[in-house]
């Protein structure tokens, strides 16, 4: 499986314009680079108020045609800006384009943890630092950012010789780390149609037990998670083995530190994804309820 860490694109990235020809239309290149610069600046405006960013083209290369770009940040003289600089605009752009062009005909699995988000599709695993993932969610609310991304897609659509758009670390890489086919890039042409595929998200959480089902089955336990009641079957056979071996004793108010599979569905009217159902796929630790005793 190919593993790619988006963090490696934080400061510079090589754009790969795929195709049989070893050259690119000057207008396609110029308009694409301008739109990429606009998208990076729009992302930076959201993430780093008080800082300006310059997008520089450092080198050109073949394969089919490549352009290496980097970002340089500088203070804008805003004395009220106290937030630390988030130099992730390029990785946010790459992450946004990748997530919104995932092939709809293949299964996508998203694992969310406190430190990172791992997106698996086929034989590719994309590791996104949590700071970049959260920044992407923040930036994608910007209409200016989405319009700039759309212009990138439209520039590529106008050049029939461009077969794909990719991202990689080194201008001499034999193949790009991420390569998105032309038909998937077209999804980005209309910002109002952006949509992520249906997805399954895995999160490691603490669940308070409200009602337990003490038998091997797919009957749903009742839990309280983040103040909300949810129902989910517990599918971890090792946990049941420990329970029937009397290594674990369950009581209401106990907690399970667990890995939960969350199925999400999209509301067609609003475009918002919401949690539909849950499964506890792994019990990491059982935490007994401790009642506070009165001090004498």
For the CA atoms, what is the radius of gyration? 23 Å
Strand fraction = 35-45%
**How far apart lie the N and C ends?**
61 Å
Summarize the biggest pleated sheet.
Answer: 9 strands, mixed
Count of separate DSSP helical elements: 6
Q: Which ranges are low-confidence, i.e. pLDDT below 50, for 5 or more consecutive residues?
A: 292-296
In N-to-C order, the SSE pattern is: EEHEEHEEEHHEEHEEEHEE
Mean pLDDT: 84
**Oligomer description:** single chain
Number of strands: 14
Structural class: alpha+beta
The coarse silhouette is: elongated
Instruction: Give the proportion of residues in helices.
Output: 10-25%
Characterization of the model:
The protein has 296 residues and is an alpha+beta fold. It has two domains: 2-104 and 126-193, no CATH class; 199-287, OB fold (Dihydrolipoamide Acetyltransferase, E2P). Helix content is 24%, strand content 37%. It contains six helices and 14 strands. The protein has helices spanning 26-47, 89-99, 130-139, 143-157, 182-185, 237-244; strands at 2-5, 12-18, 51-62, 65-75, 108-112, 116-121, 124-129, 164-168, 178-181, 199-211, 221-225, 228-232, 255-266, 273-287. Strands 1, 5, 6, 7, 10, 11, 12, 13 and 14 form a nine-stranded mixed beta sheet that branches. A hairpin with a 2-residue loop joins strand 3 (51-62) and strand 4 (65-75). Helix 1 (26-47) packs across helix 3 (130-139). It is elongated, with a radius of gyration of 23 Å.
């Amino acid at each position: 499986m190919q593993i790619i860490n988006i963090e490696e694109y934080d400061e510079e990235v090589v754009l790969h314009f795929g195709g049989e020809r070893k050259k690119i239309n000057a207008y396609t290149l110029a308009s694409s680079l301008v739109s990429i610069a606009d998208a990076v600046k729009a992302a930076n405006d959201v993430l780093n108020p008080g800082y300006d960013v310059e997008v520089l083209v450092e080198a050109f290369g073949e394969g089919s045609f490549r352009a290496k770009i980097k970002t340089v940040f500088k203070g804008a003289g805003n004395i009220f800006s106290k937030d630390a600089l988030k130099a992730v605009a390029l990785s946010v752009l790459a992450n946004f384009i990748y997530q919104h062009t995932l092939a709809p005909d293949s299964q996508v699995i998203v694992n969310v943890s406190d430190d990172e988000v791992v997106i698996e599709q086929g034989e590719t695993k994309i590791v996104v630092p949590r700071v970049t993932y959260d920044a992407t969610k923040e930036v994608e609310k910007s209409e200016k950012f989405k319009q700039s991304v759309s212009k990138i897609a439209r520039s590529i659509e106008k050049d029939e010789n461009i077969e794909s758009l990719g991202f990689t670390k080194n201008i001499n890489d034999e193949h790009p780390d991420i390569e998105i086919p032309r038909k998937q890039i077209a999804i980005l042409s209309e910002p109002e149609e952006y949509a992520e595929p249906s997805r399954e998200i895995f999160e490691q959480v603490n669940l308070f037990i409200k009602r337990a089902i003490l038998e091997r089955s797919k009957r749903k336990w009742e839990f309280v998670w983040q103040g909300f009641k949810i129902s989910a079957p517990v599918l971890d056979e090792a946990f049941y083995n420990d329970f029937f071996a009397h290594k674990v004793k369950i009581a209401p108010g106990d907690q399970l530190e667990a890995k939960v599979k969350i199925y999400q569905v999209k509301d067609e009217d609003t475009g918002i994804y919401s949690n539909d159902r849950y499964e506890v796929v792994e019990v990491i630790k059982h935490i007994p309820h401790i009642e506070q005793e009165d001090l004498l």
